[in-house]
Amino acid sequence: MAGGGNIGKGNWADPTGTIQKSGAGKWLDPLGFTKTAGQGESAADVAARLEMERQAAIKQTQARVNNVFDNPRRARDIADFVAAVRTKNMDDLARQNTDAARELKFSLARGGLSGGSVNVDQNRRLADDYNRGALNVESRAQGAGAQLEAADQDARARLIQLATSGLDTTTAAQQAASGLRSNLETARSTAYGEDLADQFTAIGSFVKNRRDEANRREATRVSQVNLYGGGYGG
Prior knowledge:
Mean pLDDT: 83
Strand content: under 5%
Largest sheet: 2 strands, antiparallel
């Protein structure tokens, strides 16, 4: 349809420029609202009105999406998730600390180092490792929360964009809620499936070195017994 004013000629127009033939004398916008031209309304007038209604529908859908993502409940969900990740990893850290303390105690005792300066130094290192581990746990928990928030924002942006392509309000709200649930489940699976890395590698190295030294001493003792024992036997 060129120009305006040929209302009633059996043509359809939408604001995207697609013209479909019909005999109804009505106009159809891309969001599914059928409009009849008003008295004295030109094709340009109808197209402009439909575009305004389309933009209003887009804003309504986008607002609905934002309402879902900005719901205070989501902030509480993320806070709960961060706390759960923190608790899990602090439990892992506590177990590692218990194991490291036990191994250190036995190692010092085997080496005759209990009560000396080496004992003091290694137990100080044990405490330092625990404190650093606690910082790592907090960083890990906050990082997991940040990744979840980023996933939410990606999902929001996708739905905001889809709204401009005609996504209706109800579907947008449903997809937003579904996206939030999916993001949380994925974040939990990732965070809970990863064990905390060993936070006491220095203590582990000390224990291993003391064990290796003890093994070497024992090997030397055995070889000397065999050597001298064999000589006397001959």
